[in-house]
Amino acid sequence: MLDIFKKQRQRYATVNPASREIPDGLWVKCPRCHEIRFTGELGKQLKVCAKCGYHFRLTAGERLKITIDEGTFTEWDRDMMPVNPFGYTEYDEKLARAHRETGLNEAVVTGEGKIGGHRAAVAVMDTRFMMASMGTVVGEKITRAIERAREKQLPLVIFAASGGARMQEGVLSLMQMAKTCAALSAFSEAGLLYISVLTDPTTGGVSASFAFLGDIILAEPGALIGFAGPRVIEQTIRQKLPEGFQRAEFLRQHGFIDAVVPRPQLKSTLAQIIDLHRSE
Amino acid sequence: MVYDFERPIIELEEKIAELQRFAREKDIDLSNEIENLEKRARELKQTIYGQLSPWQKVLIARHPERPNTLDYANMLCTDFIELHGDRCFGDDPAIVGGIARFRGRAVTVIGHLKGHDTKENLARNFGMAHPEGYRKALRLMQQAEKFNRPVLAFIDTPGAYPGMGAEERGQAHAIACCIAGMLILRVPVISVILGEGGSGGALALASGDRILMQEHAIFSVISPEAYATILWKDATRCRDAAEVMKITAQDLYAHQLVDEVIPEPLGGAHRDKNEAARLVGEAIARHLEELLGCSTEELIKRRHARFRRIAPEYLPGNNIT
Could you say which enzyme class this protein belongs to (chain A) (predicted)? Predict the structure, then answer.
């Protein structure tokens, strides 16, 4: 099918995935309390501001490091490259830049590993890669992770983060919402556990599909979670949104997530939930 | 309402009407002249409507007189009874639903509803639904399943409403549940994109067995205006955006993203509503017949396979294993 997509796609070389992580010895300013700290200290605290508790965004690599037991992670579909179905030059350039800056091939990393000794399938979205927007390949990697989790009878943990559907892939991106939801319905029917962890920010086509279909939905403190982005809402209603609107705590109050879990407790909470769902 | 590109047709039609009036009043035979002009008008229509640009299609898809979900519910079905409310919060006027009889068979009809004028549009929030709209749609679909009625879903929305109330009441959750619920429904679901199919708010009602599109309908991840604003920081480039976005029924059919393009009367559905409804009705009846021949398990299996195929390995030039 899809003859129109015949255009030759550019392939990219793989570079060091750690290249965009904040190098040691730099000072960072907390965007919330403006406290300036040494990044070395931040790292020890899982990139949470010691003064105000602000959760910095994590790269997929950092997330896996603090979540998966050391040496247990096997990555899936690592070499799957992005597609440019409509052949936009601008899009090729954007993909190339995202790849250069992150070392990732796409905006999601999937695989299998142990969380506190429990095997699990994991998907982690990385906002540095085109705001972790969902195009065909992001949708495909997530779908495959769900399917493999079902085949292997593993619990599934998805760390969602996304600006929404990837515009450059048009309706193909939109259809990934239905594709991931269909895979989840088969997964759920098999009686398996899906924990969705909403991280900053989870919006658009990702929040309106697999991210909100978790059996248990957790969120990190302060994470922006919603369908429409705050700027779009402000432009529509022509007024400023109140402080804390669409933040994780707001969603918990309104009944849309099960718990807000601070990063230092997240791994143990996941392990505990998975343990409570063990069949034996 | 007349668009610039339609003006030559309208002018010609006015001239014909004038000649007819003149002939009647003065009692002279102008039938030859009139016939010639009518022929010219037909040819002109064929030329103009046969080569509409994507942006012109956007305008037709948004035409205020274009028949909407309730028009089709009443033209295609008999005994339509509207059912209201999501049983949680309220009734969303931007999504309507109900039960009716389509060619002898009881069906559930749901769809976004745009108004035909400003007053109606304000009442319907321009077809932009809140969470209660999607929850009502899901409730009615599940009711359809209980009574083994096929679902006809009509799509006509710029997108889900981006407002405070919508977010407070879980817009993302409501859409996700609507998509997931439609995907596992144990009765046939036929979605027809009538005008605008905008983003997740449209997909919420388009995750069924078939997606049919009217000839001048559009289906897009975001509006051309928003695309131009976000990617080029310039909303006035919406025409260019419509060109590159691949949003017309013809483009999407070529990409096998929709199952059929339903022809419209020359000039668009609003120019001959009954004919438009007849064409939509025929397409629905044909697909429904096929789907009713499937076992429930087969139906759901094929529905899932339909979306599973929207994967990179199906795009030629990829060797993804």
Answer: transferase
Distance of alpha carbon A138 from the chain centroid? 10
Is any Cβ of chain A less than 8 angstroms from the Cβ of B199? yes
Q: Are residues B154 and B178 in the same domain?
A: yes
Nearest-angstrom CA–CA distance, A167 and A20 = 24
Question: CA A232 → CA A87, A229, B220, B226, distances in Å?
Answer: 28, 5, 18, 10
Instruction: Out of A96-100, A131-135, B170-174, B222-226, pick the least confident.
Output: B222-226
B321 part of a folded domain? no
Residues of chain B with C-beta less than 8 angstroms from the C-beta of A86: 244, 246
- Domain assignment of residue B24, given as a range: 4-51
Strands A194-202 and A156-162: parallel
Option in A85, A170, A228 nearest B220 (CB) = A170
Instruction: Considering only the beta carbons, identify the residue of B184, B199, B311 that sits closest to A185.
Output: B184
Burial class (CB in 10 A: 0-12, 13-18, 19+), B313: middle
Lowest mean pLDDT among A14-23, A264-273, B30-39, B42-51: A14-23
Residue A181 annotated as part of some ligand binding site: no
Same-domain pairing of B175 and B293: yes
Which residues make Cβ contacts (< 8 Å) with residue B107, sequence separation at least 6? B77, B99, B100, B101, B144, B149, B150, B151, B152
User: Domain-by-domain residue ranges, chain A?
Assistant: 1-56, 57-278
pLDDT at B321: 45
B47 and B65 both lie in a single domain: no
Mean pLDDT of chain A: 91
Are residues B82 and B28 part of one domain? no
Work out the minimum CA distance from A251 to partner chain B, whole angstroms. Answer: 8
Strand partners, B257: none
Inter-chain CB pairs, A–B, below 8 Å: 185
Cα distances (angstroms) measured from residue B202 to each of A148, A277, B128, B221: 29, 36, 10, 9
Task: Extract the tokens encoding B205.
Answer: 């009602």
Contacts of B12 (CB under 8 A, 6+ apart): B37, B40, B41, B44
Query: Is A196 within 8 Å of chain B by CB?
Result: no
CA A39 to chain centroid: 23
A chain contacts of residue B163, beta-carbon cutoff 8 Å? 228, 233, 236-237
Whether residue B320 lies inside any domain: the answer is no
Nearest by CB to B314, from A2, A167, A173: name it: A2
Domain identity same for B47 and B66: no
Is residue A88 within 8 angstroms of chain B, CB to CB? yes
Whether chain A has a CB inside 8 Å of the CB on B9: the answer is no
Please count the structural domains in chain B.
2
